[in-house]
Each structure stands twice: as structure tokens, then as C-alpha cells.
């Protein structure tokens, strides 16, 4: 259908590709924002600027919070103290800003004041109240706060939170303001009429920080204001779907097509809600390097975050509904609609053969042994999508949470801690899946496998700085299992190439030697009459061909960290 920014129906022929759909998603996304402002705008007040900044009101980009706990030192008389991972607000050259703690030990009180310019001790600012990998320190007594104590207090629901800074937007850029008691009180709203009370899957190393620190349900990962905003936007997505249906009918679109179009617009707006949830929860940190909110899924795990940033959902900066709509629209605009026969998405078991899927082109990003619990992590989005789009896709959302049993993983917790059963489940499933794909794929084209697991990846926990145990399995197991499954199911690897596939500033790459690329394996079915050779002959071929192949890779501008696997 397509609409202009003013809402006037556009001529379909005026829009290339999926631009018409993109404009409608943007248009109805703006309607949702306008209605949300009417419903919850009072929960996101502006902030009064100091005189040196003009003294007027400014829009808030984010509220920065720190979780607090009663000091374990009896001398503090039960006073709560903050856990702050860093005092940096902006570490960008030219805009340096940090928090300075002001402590009154006689009265057991504390507060933070914003400072700008070069700090006297950068290391102290970087450290915050952290004590290395051990724990935090009490601001009032300098006593250590151990993680065992924090876990105990968290599971007893004895943690609280305190506003430590407000980030605002001005003509001169972003500024950082001292916490305001009025803003802190406004954020403490009643819980909404609905919230995702489904329990977090445990044990699972990718999500178990939540129940470990007093957040046993998915609703616990959000503040009351965040829950209120997300529920409001969810309601409005369902509401605006009827508007799309009505407008399409008024534009002369046949009823059946109007229904499908309304479904398409609502689906993209539902996905927008998922993106908003990723940027609007109490586990989003503040990125002082880029001075913006860091989304939760910077890597495939949910770490515990002690000082978090709360976005302004009705604003325009990163973390707002409007910015999330724009990111979704950017994706829609590059869809080559009208240039293909259309696409179809189905959720099927890769290890099964399907009669209606023959001569297929296969490109896959397989599971990484026990490294990522996709099903458990997916619940974070599933609970919101099910509420918002469940009636549109009843087959996809027929279960309360994402099914866990069929997932191909070597996680021992799925098998009562039995590592042997977990390994056998994963390896046999891998072989079965590739055998089925070999049977159904078009022999004209290669099967391509994307693999990004880094053998030396330590998966450091944000909260405890601890290295995740590898369940007694050598780190090369996932890589070896992939290769063995491919060869054992009748494939031969004809080429391996690194492919750039992730943003350079992604969270997992910051400060690490993370893989810059995926390793792509190009595979073809090995002929039944393929020649064989002895081990000695094989080594001889390697010695002959490997130097030239390595030189070819090195000349291909491949990052050093990628060369070993390539």
C-alpha cells in the first residue's frame, strides 16, 4: 500500500522493492509513539538544566542506576551502598566525564557528583567500586562485598537501586547531570496489569545469572517503568493492526489482501518491540566509550549487570521506540520485494527429510556444542512476541516458552549432568542432520557452513570475572565434531574462507582477540568412487600444497586471529 509521512496513500508503482512497506511500518510506528506519549509520557519527564547550560528543560537520553545492598560492615548500620563497575560516564577524548563519590561516614550517607575534564586518577575512575575479580568495596567502610553475600541478599529480595546520574541532550551535545530525587521517585511506578512471569530456564549457563541474583522470572529483568512501557507498546501494536486493516480497506485493497498486509506491518512492529526489550531492561550497561546504552545481547549470554542504563522509550535516542523502528525500517528497505517469487519461512527439523523440499540450496550456521543455549536465550524475546503476535502465528507460539528438548546441544544440564549422554546427543544429531541435508540438497551447488566458535574464547563472566568451565570437554570439541560430522555424512570440504559478518564494535570484541569473521566451509558430496590415499600420502600432499595455500590466505587480507582456522 505505502504511505507518505503525512499518511496519504501512495501509488504502489512509486515505491521500489519493499519501500512502500517500510514507509508504512515507519508511519504506524510513529502513530504508536504518539499514542504511547499520551499514555505514559508522564513517566519520562524532562530535566531542568543548570544555569551554565541555559537553565531550560532538556530531554533525557538515559537514567543511570546502580544496584545497592546493605553494607556487610556492622558499623554502617544497615545503610545501602552502590555497586558501580566504573565511574566513567564518557571516556571520549574532549568530552571526559565521570562520577565522584561524596561520602559522609559519620552519617553513613553517600552521593555522586558529576565531574568533567581529566580525572586525577584514571585507574580509580575505571575501577569504580570494583575490587578486581573478587567483588565490590563498600563506599562507607571500604569493606569487601563478596559475591556470596550479594547472591544471598539478592535471592532474599534485599537488593535495591539508586539513581546516580541523568544523561540529557542539549544543543552542545550530551551532558551528564547529578541524580535528581524527583526523577528517582517517578520511576517507581506500580507494576503493570500484565508482565512475563514465565520462569527463566535453569540450570543453563547462558541465563542462570538471573535466578542466581534474585530474578527467577523474565519480568524480574525489567524495572517497573520498563515493564509498563513494553506492555504499553505491545498493546499499541495490536491496536494499530486494526488501523492498518481499516486504512487498507479505505484505499481499495481487497479484504483478504488487507488482512495479510496488516499482518505484515504488525509483524515488523512486533519485531521492533523485541528490539526495544533488548535495549530497555535492567541488564543494559552504559557504554562510556561511545556514550550510549549498550544492548543486552552484545554476546550470546545474559550476564549480571550491577550498574545499568534505563533508556527513554518515548524519546528519539538509541533505546527509544523511534530509534528501534528506524533500524527495522532500514532492514525492510533492502528487501528485494517484487524481484523474486516471494519467500517462505518454516521452522523444521534439519535432521528430517521433507518430501516438499528437494534440490535445495543449503547455507547453515550450526550450533556450537555447549557454547550457546539458543532456546533458553530465545525466551527473553519469545515472552514478548507471544503476547504481541501470538494470535497471528498460533503454530509458532503454541507453547508457553521456547521448546528446549529438541535443541541440538551438548549442555550436560539437559541430561541430568551426564556429559557422555550430552556429547552423544549432540554428535549423533549433527551426523543425522548433515546426512539429511546431503540427501535433499541440489548437487549443483555447494553446502556452506558458517562457523564462528573461537577455541580460545574464555567467555568471562561480567559479574564474577570467572572463566566458565568447559564441562570437562576440550575446547576443540565443537570444531572437531563439525568436521567429523561433515566427513562422516559423505561430504568433502572443498574450500574454507573467513567472511566478515559482525560489527567491529560488538561487545564481545571489545578488549579481546575475538574472531573478526566467520569461517565458511564450502562442502560438496563426496563421490562414492572418490580415490583414497594412505596417511603418508596425505601428509605428502599437505607438504606440497599447504605453503602455497597459506600464502594465498595471507594475501587475502585475513586477520591473523582467523588464519589458524581458515
Please provide a brief summary of the model.
With 566 residues, the protein is α+β, with helices and mostly antiparallel strands.
Low-pLDDT residue spans: 2-13, 455-475, 505-513
Distance between the termini: 47 Å
- Strand tally: 19
* Relative strand content: 15-25%
Helix-and-strand structural type: alpha+beta
Helix content: 25-40%
- The outline comes out as globular
Tally of individual helices:
13
Give the assembly state of these chains: single chain
Radius of gyration (CA) equals 27 Å
Write the layout of secondary structure elements.
Layout: H1 19-40, E1 47-48, E2 57-58, E3 60-70, E4 80-82, E5 88-90, E6 97-104, E7 109-116, H2 122-127, E8 130-131, E9 135-137, E10 144-146, H3 147-155, E11 160-170, E12 173-178, H4 181-186, H5 209-212, H6 224-250, H7 255-279, E13 286-287, E14 292-293, E15 307-311, H8 321-333, E16 363-364, H9 374-389, H10 419-440, E17 447-451, H11 477-488, E18 491-500, E19 517-525, H12 535-554, H13 560-563
Parallel strand pairs: 16-17
Antiparallel strand pairs: 1-2, 3-4, 3-11, 3-15, 5-6, 6-7, 8-9, 9-10, 11-12, 13-14, 17-19, 18-19
Helix pairs in contact: 1-6, 1-7, 1-8, 6-7, 6-9, 7-8, 7-9, 10-11
What does this structure look like?
By secondary structure, the chain is an alpha+beta fold. It has a domain at 366-373 and 409-563. It has helices at 19-40, 122-127, 147-155, 181-186, 209-212, 224-250, 255-279, 321-333, 374-389, 419-440, 477-488, 535-554, 560-563, and strands spanning 47-48, 57-58, 60-70, 80-82, 88-90, 97-104, 109-116, 130-131, 135-137, 144-146, 160-170, 173-178, 286-287, 292-293, 307-311, 363-364, 447-451, 491-500, 517-525. Strands 3, 4, 11, 12 and 15 form a five-stranded antiparallel sheet that branches.
Amino acid at each position: 500500500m505505502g504511505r507518505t509521512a503525512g499518511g496519504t496513500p501512495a501509488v504502489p508503482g512509486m515505491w521500489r522493492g519493499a519501500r512502500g512497506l517500510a514507509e508504512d511500518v515507519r508511519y504506524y510506528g510513529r502513530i504508536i509513539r504518539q499514542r504511547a506519549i499520551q499514555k505514559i509520557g508522564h513517566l519520562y519527564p524532562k530535566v531542568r538544566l543548570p544555569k551554565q547550560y541555559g537553565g531550560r528543560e532538556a530531554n533525557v537520553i538515559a537514567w543511570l542506576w546502580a544496584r545497592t545492598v546493605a553494607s556487610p560492615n556492622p558499623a554502617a548500620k544497615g545503610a545501602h551502598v552502590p555497586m558501580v563497575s566504573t565511574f566513567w560516564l564518557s571516556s571520549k577524548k574532549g568530552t571526559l566525564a565521570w562520577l565522584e563519590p561524596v561520602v559522609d561516614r559519620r552519617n553513613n550517607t553517600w552521593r555522586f557528583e558529576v565531574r568533567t575534564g581529566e580525572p586525577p586518577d584514571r585507574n580509580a575512575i575505571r575501577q569504580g567500586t570494583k575490587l578486581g575479580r573478587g567483588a565490590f568495596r563498600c563506599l562507607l567502610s571500604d569493606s569487601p562485598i563478596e559475591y556470596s553475600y550479594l547472591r544471598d541478599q539478592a535471592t532474599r529480595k534485599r537488593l535495591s537501586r539508586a539513581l546516580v546520574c541523568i544523561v540529557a541532550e542539549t544543543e552542545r551535545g550530551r551532558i551528564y547531570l547529578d541524580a535528581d530525587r524527583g526523577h528517582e521517585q517517578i520511576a517507581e511506578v506500580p507494576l503493570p496489569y500484565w508482565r512475563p512471569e514465565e520462569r527463566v530456564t535453569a540450570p543453563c549457563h547462558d541465563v542462570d545469572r538471573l535466578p542466581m541474583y534474585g530474578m527467577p522470572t523474565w519480568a524480574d529483568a525489567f524495572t517497573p517503568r520498563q515493564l509498563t512501557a513494553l506492555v504499553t507498546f505491545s498493546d499499541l501494536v495490536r491496536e494499530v493492526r486494526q488501523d492498518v486493516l481499516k486504512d487498507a480497506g479505505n484505499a481499495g485493497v481487497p479484504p483478504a489482501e488487507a488482512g495479510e498486509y496488516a499482518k505484515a506491518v504488525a509483524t515488523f512492529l512486533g519485531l521492533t518491540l523485541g528490539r526495544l526489550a533488548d535495549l530497555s531492561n535492567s541488564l543494559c550497561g552504559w557504554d562510556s566509550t561511545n556514550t550510549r546504552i549498550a544492548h543486552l545481547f552484545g554476546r550470546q549470554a545474559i550476564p549480571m549487570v550491577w550498574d545499568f542504563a534505563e533508556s527513554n522509550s518515548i524519546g528519539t535516542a538509541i533505546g527509544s521506540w523511534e530509534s528501534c523502528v528506524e533500524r527495522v525500517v532500514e532492514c525492510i528497505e533492502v528487501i528485494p520485494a517484487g524481484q523474486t517469487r516471494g519467500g517462505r519461512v518454516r521452522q523444521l527439523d534439519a535432521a528430517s527429510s521433507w518430501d516438499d523440499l528437494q534440490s535445495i540450496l543449503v547455507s547453515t550456521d550450526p550450533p556450537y556444542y555447549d557454547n550457546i543455549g539458543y532456546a533458553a536465550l530465545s525466551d527473553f524475546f519469545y515472552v514478548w512476541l507471544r503476547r504481541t503476535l501470538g494470535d497471528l502465528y498460533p503454530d509458532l507460539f503454541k507453547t508457553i516458552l521456547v521448546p528446549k528438548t529438541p535443541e541440538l546441544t551438548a549442555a550436560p544440564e539437559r541430561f541430568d549432568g551426564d556429559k557422555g549422554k550430552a556429547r552423544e546427543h549432540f554428535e549423533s544429531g549433527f551426523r543425522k542432520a548433515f546426512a539429511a541435508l546431503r540427501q535433499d540438497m541440489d548437487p549443483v551447488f555447494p553446502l556452506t557452513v558458517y562457523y564462528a566458535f573461537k577455541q580460545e574464547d574464555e567467555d568471562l563472566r561480567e559479574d564474577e570475572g570467572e572463566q566458565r568451565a568447559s564441562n570437562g570437554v576440550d575446547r576443540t570439541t565443537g570444531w572437531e565434531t563439525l568436521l567429523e560430522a561433515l566427513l562422516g555424512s559423505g561430504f568433502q570440504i572443498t574450500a574454507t574462507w573467513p567472511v566478515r559478518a559482525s560489527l567491529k564494535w560488538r561487545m564481545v570484541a571489545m578488549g579481546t582477540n575475538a574472531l573478526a569473521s566467520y569461517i565458511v566451509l564450502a562442502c560438496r558430496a563426496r563421490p562414492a568412487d572418490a580415490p583414497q590415499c594412505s596417511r603418508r600420502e596425505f601428509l605428502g600432499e599437505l607438504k606440497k600444497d599447504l605453503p602455497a595455500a597459506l600464502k594465498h590466505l595471507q594475501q587475502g587480507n585475513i586477520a591473523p586471529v582467523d588464519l589458524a582456522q581458515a
